[in-house]
Structures are given as C-alpha cells and as structure tokens.
Design goal:
The protein is of the alpha+beta class. The chain is 21% helix and 37% strand.
Length: 126
C-alpha cells in the first residue's frame, strides 16, 4: 500500500527542505508554541478513485495538502514556493505523477504564524 504523504515528506527531506519529525511532518498540523521557525505538514485531504481507461486497473488519485507555517512572511512564502516547485511533476518511482498547485495564503494561526496551503494530486495504479 502506498503512503503518498510519507513519500512526499521523504522527497522534501532529501531535497534539504526540512528534517523529518522536527520540521517536516506527515499528518495534520498541531499547535505547539515552541515550534521551529518554519514547519511543513503533509496530509490527506480526500480524493476520487477514477477508472483507468484502457485497462482493468483503477487510477488512484488521492489529494493531499502541504501546509507551511512560518514566523515570518517572506521566509514562509519562499519555502512554500520551493516545495510546490519541487513536488510539481517530480519523477517518483511507483507513481504516475505528482502535481502541486501554487501555494495559497491562509489566515494566521492562533499563535500568529503565517500559513500557506499547497494542494497536491498524486496518481498511481493498482
């Protein structure tokens, strides 16, 4: 069974965009006051399973989100754009493709941190 969120976290860590379990996480954001200056959370946000035309396989198309949180606007915006650029079209073994939209600015969280949401579509067949 594929674990797209964990696979994306591994790609972000390999590219130097964070440290797994310290600044990059697989799962929903949590509110911790002592958080690092920039954090990234990758989690499932639903998706539709479509029949794959031309074969008996189903094309799986789960949707995910990467949420970037930052204490400063410019650093967070730059980090969110780097993540979207890396993920969009990234060649990933076992996947038909990854697509990422441009980061969407979100309201600040309860602790005043800036946030961006990056919609991600992954595709694979089983």
């Amino acid at each position: 069974m594929r674990r797209p969120a964990e696979d994306i976290v591994a790609v972000l860590v390999a590219a130097g965009l964070g440290v797994a379990g310290q600044t990059v996480f697989s799962g929903q954001p949590t509110d911790i006051a002592e958080a690092p200056p920039i954090e990234v959370f990758v989690f499932s946000s639903g998706g539709v399973q479509m029949p794959y035309m031309g074969s008996g396989d189903s094309l799986k198309s789960p949707r995910l989100r990467a949420q970037v949180r930052s204490r400063t606007y410019l650093a967070g915006e730059l980090h969110a754009n780097e993540i979207a650029a890396l993920i969009d079209g990234h060649p990933s073994p076992g996947y038909a493709g990854w697509r990422a939209d441009l980061p969407i600015p979100m309201p600040k969280d309860g602790l005043g941190r800036f946030r961006w949401s990056i919609p991600i579509l992954v595709q694979y067949t089983e």
